[in-house]
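re: ur question from earlier - yeah i can do the single chain one, its not a big deal. heres the input i used so u can compare w yours
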Amino acid sequence: MAEILNDIELIKLLGKVIINGEKENIKPNSYVLRCGTYGEFINTNKEFEFSSKKKGIIVQPGHSVGLTSDETIDFRREIVREIYPDCDLHGVLSPSTDLSREGVVAPTTQVDAGFCGTLNWTLTNTSNLDRRFVHKENIYRLTIFKLQKNESPENLYSGSYQMQEGYVRSRRQGAPVGMRDDEWIDPNKSDSPAKLIDNLINSGYPWNILGQRLKIIDDQFKSVTEEYANIKDLIDKLNYDVRDMSANYKELSNKLPEIVRNNLRDEATSLQNRWLIGTGTLIVALIGIILTLLSNESATNYLKANGTWIGLVLIVVSCIALISTTRKRKK
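and the output i got, formated as C-alpha cells:
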C-alpha cells in the first residue's frame, strides 16, 4: 500500500529528488514549495522574472498569475531507486491554507511517477484586494507517496513538460484547423446584450462590479433612446402640421382675390339695395305728405307759412336716418 513520506524520509530526498530544497520547508508529512524566479500574468500574457530590483508581484482582484517552483522535482525511476529500491514516487500538490484564507484560489494537481522538472501552477485572486507575492515565498504543499513494487506504473511520465525548467506555458493541443463557427457550442453567442451583462454580474468579483456599471449605462442609454424617439415623433408631427398649414395657406392665397371680389360685390349689392329701399321709402313718404297737405286747405296754408323750417327739419331727419343705417351695417 502506498506510503506517505514523513519528515524523516523527506530529508533523504533533499539534493536528489527535491533539488534546491531547504530543510526548514519540510513539514511533518509534506514539503512546502517556494515561488520560483519566473512566471506570467495570465490576463495580459506578460511574463516576468524576479530580480534584485523586482522582488515581488501584485495580483489585482479577478486576475490570475502563473508561477513556477523554486525547487526542481526529480521522480525519475533511476534517481528514486537509489533511495528506495523497487519503488517509485508520486506527488500531490495542494495550496497552502493561507491562500484560501485570503481569497486566492489555486488548483490541486498531481505529479506522476517519472516526472522531472520545475512545477508550475496558477493562482487566481477572487478577493476585492490586491494580493502580493514575493520571490521564494512558501506557496504550495507537496505530499509525496512511496509506491511499492506492485503499485509502480508500467509507463512512467513522458509528457511535454518533462525536463523543463522555469515557467512553461500550456502546451495543450489546440482546436483542429478548419472548424467553422457554427460547430462550436458557445453559451453566450445567441444571448442578448442584457443576458450577457447578467452573466457578467454573476461571475463574481470584480466582474460583477463591471457588469453592474454596464447595466446602469445600458438603462441610461435606453432612457436617452426613448427620449430621442419622443422628440423625433414631436418633430415629425410639427413638420406635418407646418406642411398642412403651408398647403392651407397656399390654397387660401389662391382663393383670397376671389373671396375679396365676392365680398365686395355682395357688399355693393347690399348697399345699393339699402339705398334703393331707403330712397323709395322716402319718396313714398314725401308723396303721401304732399297729397295730404294739398288736399287740406288749412295744412296748405300752414305749409306756405312755415315751409322753410319744415323743409330743413326733413332734410336733417333724412341725413340722420341715412347715417344710422350705415353705422348699423358696419357693426
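The domain at 3-151 is CATH 2.70.40.10 (Deoxyuridine 5'-Triphosphate Nucleotidohydrolase; Chain A). not sure if urs matches, ping me
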